[in-house]
């Protein structure tokens, strides 16, 4: 065979391999751009805004206090009743006395930088999601004066930054989780006016909590005298 033909054939196959590589890279780039465009990949993700929007979708808001919660904005930091830190992470939700009704959602436990969750004085109902125990920076959990039912999640004992825990005037049942006595920074706890049972723990951070914080729970006995009264007394 002609040697110039061989050389040019080899040249051609090298070129076509190169061409194929270029096409492959180009296709991959186009694919990434397209995926970003349709939002399959998180380009500038707004997961905290999505979480708060999901919470809003489950609520009745007759006073329109959540009107500014627009999920199409880059983040929720300009929404009313939401505060962010300098890194645009949500640190406060202030929705006390806002006539809101409906449930909390487990996804609220993903707001890692949240320090203040102020939801007192509404008509919020359902259970307190155990996932709130994931809020490691939470300083204040104010859910008092609502319609919450079910038991107090033991996972709230994981809230190592918590100083204020006010769950009073709801419809909470069951025992007071012992895990709460391990929150060393706890300054104020109020779980009065619920339907709690069992005894009042008096150890750990509960040592200096006044009895007033537990009153008006008709099935609650205490303060706990270690060993002499069953922890589950009154819990049928
Ligand atoms: C709770 O709901 C009831 C009945 O819908 C209403 O009368 C009451 O004003 C609401 N309370 C608050 C604090 O929004
Ligand atoms: C006691 O708690 C119940 C509900 O748990 C509430 O309706 C009532 O107002 C409370 N009473 C006082 C004196 O706080």
Automatic annotation (TrEMBL):
SUPFAM superfamilies: L domain-like. The chain crosses the membrane at residues 20-41. The keyword ATP-binding does not apply. Residues 46-85 form the Leucine-rich repeat-containing N-terminal plant-type domain. Keywords: Leucine-rich repeat, Membrane, Repeat, Signal, Transmembrane, Transmembrane helix. InterPro entries: Leu-rich_rpt, LRR_dom_sf, LRR_N_plant-typ. This is Leucine-rich repeat-containing N-terminal plant-type domain-containing protein. The keyword Transmembrane applies. Pfam families: LRR_1 (PF00560), LRRNT_2 (PF08263). It comes from the Eukaryota.
């Amino acid at each position: 065979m002609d040697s110039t033909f061989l050389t040019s054939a080899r040249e051609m196959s090298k070129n076509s391999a190169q061409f194929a590589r270029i096409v492959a890279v180009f296709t991959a780039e186009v694919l990434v751009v397209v995926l970003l465009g349709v939002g399959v990949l998180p380009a500038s993700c707004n997961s905290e805004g999505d979480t708060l929007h999901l919470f809003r979708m489950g609520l009745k808001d007759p006073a329109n206090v959540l009107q500014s919660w627009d999920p199409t904005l880059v983040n929720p930091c300009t929404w009313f009743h939401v505060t962010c830190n300098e890194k645009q992470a949500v640190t406060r939700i202030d929705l006390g006395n806002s006539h809101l009704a409906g449930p909390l959602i487990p996804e609220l436990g993903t707001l890692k930088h949240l320090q203040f969750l102020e939801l007192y004085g509404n008509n919020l109902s359902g259970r307190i999601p155990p996932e709130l125990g994931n809020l490691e920076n939470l300083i204040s959990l104010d859910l008092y004066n609502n319609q919450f039912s079910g038991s107090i999640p033991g996972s709230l004992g994981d809230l190592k930054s918590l100083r204020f825990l006010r769950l009073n005037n709801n419809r909470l049942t069951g025992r007071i989780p012992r895990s709460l006595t391990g929150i060393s920074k706890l300054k104020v706890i109020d779980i009065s006016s619920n339907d709690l049972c069992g005894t009042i723990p008096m150890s750990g951070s509960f040592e200096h909590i006044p009895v007033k914080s537990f009153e008006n729970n008709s099935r609650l006995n205490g303060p706990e005298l270690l060993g002499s009264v069953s922890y589950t007394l009154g819990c049928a």
